[in-house]
């Protein structure tokens, strides 16, 4: 299952687990490979970016992505999903209806952030909504003993935040995919759909999922540890006056 992640511009995080920081907005995507299935966490900011990710995943692993988990409904994390035909798409509870009705808003957000209008329009027009919604927590079996846990932690950074726990294997640490609940390359961004009063509690839940030894993968920036997540939780609680 080990592959030369670095040859493709990816960072290896463990056996069959790697991530890439995409250009433009420094959004992170993560691949998790089991013996039978391959999970991709987030799909990039445009359909073109999704196509590139699909090709890289197939070159890295020699097979196709079978499952996608969307961390939250912001354009730089979801607009590449249509590039992956036939996959099973997962999102937090309520995300399907939100994305089904929200393509125009994602188009507008993408254009305001510098995506060319025609590219943003193609990406929004082909937007794929989740086939499966996670209520609470849901295990996903990728085969060969690799089971990941999808956890609905929203609303917090956004109206619908989905984290993923990848248990450690071969002596390696667990890996927690945080989406934009955690950001390392800048201060956490609270947009109009953020529910700031619940954000610190979502970070506390991330720490419960991963524990002290886990690698925490933020939506933007370098991989961090539990101490960083605790510090960011405290800063958010102070910033938003949460007890």
List keywords for this structure.
single chain, Metallo-beta-lactamase, Chain A, seven-stranded mixed sheet, five-stranded mixed sheet, 29% helix, globular, alpha/beta
Description:
The protein is an alpha/beta fold. It has a single domain (5-239), classed as 4-Layer Sandwich (Metallo-beta-lactamase, Chain A), CATH 3.60.15. 29% of the residues lie in helices and 26% in strands. It contains 7 helices and 12 strands. The chain has helices at 47-61, 75-78, 95-101, 103-112, 117-125, 199-210, 226-239, and strands at 11-14, 17-21, 28-33, 38-41, 67-69, 88-92, 132-134, 137-143, 146-152, 162-166, 175-183, 215-220. Strands 1-2-3-4-5-6-7 form a 7-stranded mixed beta sheet, with no helix packed on it. A 5-stranded mixed beta sheet has the order 8-9-10-11-12, covered by helices on one side. A hairpin with an 8-residue loop joins strand 10 (162-166) and strand 11 (175-183). Helix 4 packs antiparallel against helix 5 and helix 6 packs antiparallel against helix 7 (226-239). The model has no long low-confidence stretch (mean pLDDT 96). Residues 26-220 form the Metallo-beta-lactamase domain. It comes from Streptomyces globisporus.
Question: Briefly, what is this?
Answer:
It comes from Streptomyces globisporus. Pfam families: Lactamase_B. The chain has 7 helices and 12 strands.
């Amino acid at each position: 299952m080990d592959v030369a992640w670095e040859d493709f511009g990816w960072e290896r995080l463990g056996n069959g687990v790697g991530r890439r920081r995409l250009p433009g907005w420094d959004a992170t995507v993560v691949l998790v490979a089991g013996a039978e299935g391959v999970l991709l966490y987030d799909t990039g900011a445009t359909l073109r970016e999704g196509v590139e990710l699909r090709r890289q995943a197939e070159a890295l692993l020699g097979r196709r992505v079978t499952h996608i988990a969307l961390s939250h409904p912001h354009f730089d994390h979801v607009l590449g999903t249509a590039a992956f035909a036939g996959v099973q798409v997962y999102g937090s509870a309520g995300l399907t209806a939100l994305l089904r009705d929200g393509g125009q808003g994602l188009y507008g957000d993408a254009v305001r952030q510098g995506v060319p209008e025609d590219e943003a329009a193609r990406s929004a027009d082909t937007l794929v909504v989740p086939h499966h919604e996670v209520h609470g927590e849901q295990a996903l079996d990728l085969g060969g003993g690799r089971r990941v846990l999808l956890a609905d932690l929203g609303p917090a950074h956004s109206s619908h935040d989905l984290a993923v726990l990848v248990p450690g294997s071969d002596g390696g640490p667990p890996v927690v995919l945080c989406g934009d609940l955690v950001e390392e390359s800048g201060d956490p961004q609270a947009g109009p759909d953020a529910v700031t009063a619940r954000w610190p509690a979502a970070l506390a839940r991330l720490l419960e999922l991963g524990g002290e030894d886990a690698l925490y993968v933020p939506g933007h920036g370098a991989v961090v540890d539990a101490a960083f997540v605790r510090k960011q939780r405290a800063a958010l609680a102070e910033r938003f006056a949460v007890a």
